[in-house]
Amino acid sequence: MITDAASKAAMLVEALPYIRRFRGQVVVVKYGGNALAGASNDQALSLFAEDIVLMRAVGLRPVVVHGGGPQISDLMARLGKKPEFRNGLRVTDAETVDLARMVLIGQVNPQLVAAINVHGPIAVGVSGEDAGLIRASARDPELGFVGDVSAINPTILQRLIDDEFVPVVATIGTDEHGQAYNINADTVAGAIAESLGAEKLVYLTDIEGLRSIVDDPASLIRQTTPDELDALMADGTIAGGMIPKVESCVHALRNGVRRAHILDGRIPHVLLLEIFTDDGIGTMVRDRLEQEST
Amino acid sequence: MITDAASKAAMLVEALPYIRRFRGQVVVVKYGGNALAGASNDQALSLFAEDIVLMRAVGLRPVVVHGGGPQISDLMARLGKKPEFRNGLRVTDAETVDLARMVLIGQVNPQLVAAINVHGPIAVGVSGEDAGLIRASARDPELGFVGDVSAINPTILQRLIDDEFVPVVATIGTDEHGQAYNINADTVAGAIAESLGAEKLVYLTDIEGLRSIVDDPASLIRQTTPDELDALMADGTIAGGMIPKVESCVHALRNGVRRAHILDGRIPHVLLLEIFTDDGIGTMVRDRLEQEST
Amino acid sequence: MITDAASKAAMLVEALPYIRRFRGQVVVVKYGGNALAGASNDQALSLFAEDIVLMRAVGLRPVVVHGGGPQISDLMARLGKKPEFRNGLRVTDAETVDLARMVLIGQVNPQLVAAINVHGPIAVGVSGEDAGLIRASARDPELGFVGDVSAINPTILQRLIDDEFVPVVATIGTDEHGQAYNINADTVAGAIAESLGAEKLVYLTDIEGLRSIVDDPASLIRQTTPDELDALMADGTIAGGMIPKVESCVHALRNGVRRAHILDGRIPHVLLLEIFTDDGIGTMVRDRLEQEST
Amino acid sequence: MITDAASKAAMLVEALPYIRRFRGQVVVVKYGGNALAGASNDQALSLFAEDIVLMRAVGLRPVVVHGGGPQISDLMARLGKKPEFRNGLRVTDAETVDLARMVLIGQVNPQLVAAINVHGPIAVGVSGEDAGLIRASARDPELGFVGDVSAINPTILQRLIDDEFVPVVATIGTDEHGQAYNINADTVAGAIAESLGAEKLVYLTDIEGLRSIVDDPASLIRQTTPDELDALMADGTIAGGMIPKVESCVHALRNGVRRAHILDGRIPHVLLLEIFTDDGIGTMVRDRLEQEST
Amino acid sequence: MITDAASKAAMLVEALPYIRRFRGQVVVVKYGGNALAGASNDQALSLFAEDIVLMRAVGLRPVVVHGGGPQISDLMARLGKKPEFRNGLRVTDAETVDLARMVLIGQVNPQLVAAINVHGPIAVGVSGEDAGLIRASARDPELGFVGDVSAINPTILQRLIDDEFVPVVATIGTDEHGQAYNINADTVAGAIAESLGAEKLVYLTDIEGLRSIVDDPASLIRQTTPDELDALMADGTIAGGMIPKVESCVHALRNGVRRAHILDGRIPHVLLLEIFTDDGIGTMVRDRLEQEST
Amino acid sequence: MITDAASKAAMLVEALPYIRRFRGQVVVVKYGGNALAGASNDQALSLFAEDIVLMRAVGLRPVVVHGGGPQISDLMARLGKKPEFRNGLRVTDAETVDLARMVLIGQVNPQLVAAINVHGPIAVGVSGEDAGLIRASARDPELGFVGDVSAINPTILQRLIDDEFVPVVATIGTDEHGQAYNINADTVAGAIAESLGAEKLVYLTDIEGLRSIVDDPASLIRQTTPDELDALMADGTIAGGMIPKVESCVHALRNGVRRAHILDGRIPHVLLLEIFTDDGIGTMVRDRLEQEST
Question: How far is Cα B64 from Cα F146, in angstroms, rounded to an integer?
Fold first, then answer.
């Protein structure tokens, strides 16, 4: 037992400098809708919830942002409504944005809140409509109610984290008339991280990180910088759904966020491992001039 | 113009004692799902939102609680799912409670929040799952996930009203395993009013108030007491959907709430009229021993 | 009744944007000694008190400043002392300044305080001697103890308004030896408005506002700017007792006060009408570059 | 010089335990109108002001209460109005109470405020009408507007002393209609001391203290108790204008005030000597059961 | 790596409920002088310091109390002074108490403070003389300046822990004349735990815990109660230097402390293991009526 | 008695302006080890303690800094260890710095704390190791553990004085590895005064002040400036142990401290005389441009 105990204690001691460094810091975590879509994902959600609760327990201030594309498509299918995409973006008519709102705020968000609150009354669901959190504008008339972020009013998030709650954000925004828009959750996560002066912006995805050669898992990029990422997007190495994540990382790093991470959400407790251990995981984006690790 | 101006000023002066009396007091307002269900109700919602914003502006602390029965039935119909009622209560299987949650939290709640926030970033949607607000237990195994209120944890509401926000509550509760339950919104409104030590509990309905003779509109009861209401329920004068409202009024009055009101939500600005003018409207419930009006 | 109720509600709704805009703002109101001098003015005082109480009740922070010339003359007459004026200013020997102090602090001020406090314990009389509020210096040796404002120390006013009291200021100042001086109340009102960063400075007078043609009531100036007022004083259109008011308005607007108003104090509830309704009343002075109304 | 210096230091060290004991404690000091009435009293007032400023500077919380009988009589005489007394109380018609108010609030009070504020902006004049401080009722219809204290609302005094000001109280009270009453200042001092839970209640008079034999200065009572004072009033040893002082001492001691003192205000710096030195001065009233001195 | 990472994450997750349960709670840890006496103990001290820092980092409020008997004896030996014991207590003359004070406050205490502060400026040395922390009285005239605890004034400790410092307490107390006394550190630890309403009182010793059979290591008592400990002291099973520890545990448990522990300080990170893992270690004392573990 | 009383009152009144001027200000007082070394110095210590307590009682914020050279030499002598000095600085090997630490923290510091706390629980001993107060670096490898001040972290001092305690500082500092260094107390006093923005820095010495002619007591310098002191050090007038004091005064005056004083600690209550009386004592250093005294 002593041996086992010793390794337990060693683990806690390994975590100590990270606990001290990140105490009181905001960490914005984007949790993908994919991760919640499958029936088999109940356990993954439960592990994720543990990570968030532990971060809060040791004094970090996590904020969760989520999307829900698969779930929106699923409800549309059940209602016999055919999704239509243009350049990878969902064409969103008035009925569709109502369905998106219902799914994001009324289905995905409560799932996350409930999973966290099994551990105690700390998570609070927030939509971009609450207290004017996300002000949106139409991206393109042809896309209907697909929105860009015009402004973030982080007051409600600041109050909730000051009161030691964990906000869980559904990414529906509104314009000045109260019209709802569906907004890309990767983009919202970056904008919220900036508005809160977050220490970290973390994307949980379903690949192990960014690659320098698209098809070669061995080409995982462990550390990179905004400038390198600009180049990788320019030459097409980074493409598709990874674009909004990477653009948000670059923008956030250039606007006060200290670190961004693209992690493999399929690894159990990947958040804890990234934040509290000496092991580097996934891809870390940091400003070129800094030297220290993590 | 002077004449008109004089009457404007007179109105403000009439409101003065009420503004002073109710400053800093909590008023819980139950807004019925019916009121939101019809397309023609956009204007009614807009007037209601003005009332809530004005109450907040002059220093009251309104909390809005809402249901959404018609909207739930509507979504079930669109999905080809047939509602089943037993003793007036919806039989709620696992799929139905998910739909109810989607509708209440993701459709009705954001409608109310958006209508209020046209005036400024003050409303915040809250579900009973947020920060453990509503702890629920099953009412009857045969009804499935229809819940009773086991406990209210008003912390999140207190923090939001201390921060000068207006909470808008969707009445989904959870048990200790995170399972969601659909709960009668009239009952929740009363329980929340008690937990916050509210000054007033107000039900906005679609009739003009309680009647002593069911079919006689002229028999409107202007003032009554918990004991009289017990008698009216015992002899069957009060029945049907009015029961949860009246039971909640009686319970709330006996547990610290000072006044309860059943008002006709179809009257424009009925909340303002009840709270800020000398005119009595609808039915007021008060403790027998008090003498003063309103 | 419903019709009447509807117009009541409409009035409150009309007031809503003003209540929200002015919440927490300081409004300095100069109440003239004339308004208090006559026996028939009890009712006017009572209406004025209601206006102040209502302003406070909905969250504004009113400060009242008053003079008392007629009352001083009256006491001097009773004591057989003949007032002597030079260039419109009362020659003030040692005995006269003692009488002025007695009248302003001991007669006019308590009248105003008592009228407000009928509604609750909120008004507090303050003289310029209290906590060093008004530091004065002699204007002209020939005039004796007629003072100019050397400095305002607004600490006592800030503390009182932070504690939700309504200060009522008698305009006696002192020099560094504790010698009292009588100071023009119009000038003090402007200086206090500046020192508090007031939103509004309001003069209640006994004419309907400024006129562009002195004898033509139809030439009422509804809106003007400091520059226009400078011109109107230079060409003699504005003259006599209106000078200190207009000079104070101009100075205050150029030192951080947002709006100044010259209103007809004979109109019942003129303060409420100006502040809380869409009706423009009297003369408003505002900075040239602003576009919005009120 | 060293010798002199040594005695200076010794004095400060002698004061140390008193400074520490009374830090943060409220001391209510009644300053008599007589003391202010004569022209030769300017210096006495100046010494009194120094005492109050020093008490405040070392952390005590002094509150000054004053009357002004001689000054009222003087103004009445100047106006050709003949004072009328019944059982030692001034018959006070409507005009007389207005004159009393003018004198107390507008003449005596500012004299005290100005004398203290020569040292810095710390004194604030307060009348019993301010913020509802003194609620009064008629003592006897035949006496007109001579009032008894119905209630003290000490809020304004507490706020001022919390903000480190020194309140100077003029003893005019009002009834619920805003009617002013003249109230005995000795009585008000005691009532205020009780309402503030004062450590000390001090009467500055023009005799050296209470005597056990009226005509024998050698019979000065150095220490006494409420019970002994009851007996001395019952047997007539204490009589006349000393009665309200002694009654107030007795009542205050029985309602939470720790010590009462009747001191000779003609001794320079008598307040400092009583409070900060080992020398006993005048008459001290204390509860019978206590043993320690001062 | 994933396997290793998984076990790291598992350890953190195992700690989660303990971190949440003990957040904000005071834990008083007695660190024995023996543990510091040997040259080989530098590493043990370093591990102990890590444990204290980690406890603080995750939100507990540790207070360290230490003795220093061996170090006192050592200095006495160097000065050629022969220790004298009576009933196991050191006879402490004036010179000896000065030496004890020098060693405890000036040698042992700074060693502990320095070891902790390698991790950041959080530890603050406190002696029982600081701010009147430990009021002492002589235990027995024959023993000289060996003291009992008369009273604990925990103000300085509360302020330091509120300011997020870790107090390290040297157990010298004083009487009302400022005379120093040497006091048993086990006793002081218990008295401080009571005065702070500590959650836990922990003794780090050099055996594995209490035994029911003195010579049988296999008879380790894992859990016990105050009543059982009373019996074990009465029958002599517990004796010698363990008595003050056990008496303090019993007294503390009966005065508001929730748990007491006697742990083997030779096990690396024994504090972390006891507090943050599911493994039971050493002897835990708890109130008989409780059922839950740890 | 009156005469005596009058002079007592006069003394308090003389102190009044100083009490008001210095309220809330930090005064750092260096108390020399010499002053404590002799047996006959108990009374001097007691007078010094009274001065500190009085300063605190009237609202100043004293911080005491002390050395202890004679006491260190004394312990070394008792242990048969021969002090070795190089250029007036003690060569400090590992054992010597441990002894110095023991003496300063464990002997001299508690003596001062105990003398002050006879008057109440206000003094708290602090070493430079506590909460990282003094970061030190080696002055010269040949001197061993003699340190220079690298940085002051005044957090612990600010917290203690905000909590109304009187810190008493022992001048042991540490480097980043936790190694202790002995540091000149005169230098530390100046550095702490700067870091706290002190109003005054006071050195209590055993001569009457600085002299312009070394051997002529009549050449006492009553007032001087940093520039003049630079010149006096350059020409050798100031030399020996006075150098660190004078250098610290000069540096402190040029970094925000308002006044420095070199006083004769043998004069009873010299601190009170300097701070609270009109008498000038010792040498005052002030910035050249200022005119006012004290």
Answer: 70
> What is the signed CA dihedral for A168, A174, A179, A185, rounded to 10 degrees?
-60
- All structural domains of chain B with their residue ranges: 2-286
DSSP letter for each residue of C240-283? TTHHHHHHHHHHHHTTT--EEEEEETTSTTHHHHHHHSS---SE
Answer whether A121's CB lies under 8 Å from B131's CB. yes
Q: What is the largest CA-CA distance in chain A?
A: 66
- Interchain contact C98–D (C-beta under 8 A): yes
**E178 neighbors F117 (Cβ within 8 angstroms):** yes
| Confidence bin at A2 (pLDDT 50/70/90) | very low
Cβ neighbour number for residue C124 with a 10 Å cutoff: 30
What element of type H or E holds E87? Answer: none
Q: Within chain F, how many helices (H) and strands (E) appear?
A: 11, 14
What do you get for the CA distance between the two ends of chain A, in Å? 32
Strands B283-286, F146-152: pairing kind: unpaired
Give me the architecture of the F24-286 domain, per CATH: 3-Layer(aba) Sandwich (3.40)
Distance from CA of F190 to the nearest CA of D (A): 27
CA distance E19 to A157: 24
The 3-state secondary structure of F16-27 reads HHHHHHHCCCEE
A161 touches chain B (CB under 8 A): no
Q: CATH fold of E2-286, please? A: Carbamate kinase (3.40.1160)
Contact state of B130 with A125 under an 8 Å Cβ cutoff: yes
ipTM of the complex: 0.93
Q: Given phi > 0 = left and psi -120 to 50 = alpha, else beta, which region is F112?
A: alpha
Residue D214 half-sphere exposure, CB side, CA atoms within 13 Å? Answer: 9
Chain A residues with CB under 8 Å of B178 CB are 114-115, 117-118
Return residues 54-93 of E near A (CB < 8 Å): 54, 57-59
| Superfamily (CATH) of domain C20-286 | Acetylglutamate kinase-like (3.40.1160.10)
Q: Report how far Cα E163 is from the mean position of its chain's Cα atoms.
A: 21
Which superfamily does D23-286 belong to?
A: Acetylglutamate kinase-like (3.40.1160.10)
User: pTM here?
Assistant: 0.90
- Cβ atoms within 10 Å, residue A230: 14
Q: Of C183, C180, C188, nearest to C95 (Cα)?
A: C180
Output the tens digit of pLDDT for each of chain D's 294 residues. 445 777 888 888 889 899 999 999 999 999 986 766 554 577 889 999 999 999 999 999 999 999 998 999 999 999 999 888 887 788 899 999 999 999 999 999 999 999 999 999 999 999 999 999 999 999 988 899 999 999 999 999 999 999 999 999 999 999 988 899 999 999 999 999 999 999 999 999 988 899 988 888 889 999 999 999 999 999 999 988 889 999 999 999 999 999 999 999 989 999 999 999 887 789 999 986 455 444
Element (H, E) at E31: strand E26-31
Strands D200-205 and B180-183: unpaired
Q: What's the rounded Cα separation, in Å, for the pair A183 and D56? A: 62
When pLDDT is averaged across residues A39-52 and rounded to a whole number, the result is 84
d(CA C291, CA C128): 37
For B283, phi then psi, to 5°, come to -110, 130
How far is the C-alpha of B111 from the C-alpha of F105, rounded, in Å?
A: 68
Measure in Å the smallest separation between the Cα of E124 and chain F Cα atoms.
Answer: 4
CB-count burial class (<10 Å; 0-12, 13-18, 19+) for A2: exposed
What phi and psi values does residue E171 have, to the nearest 5 degrees?
A: -95, 55
pLDDT tens figures, C83-124: 888 877 888 999 999 999 999 999 999 999 999 999 999 999
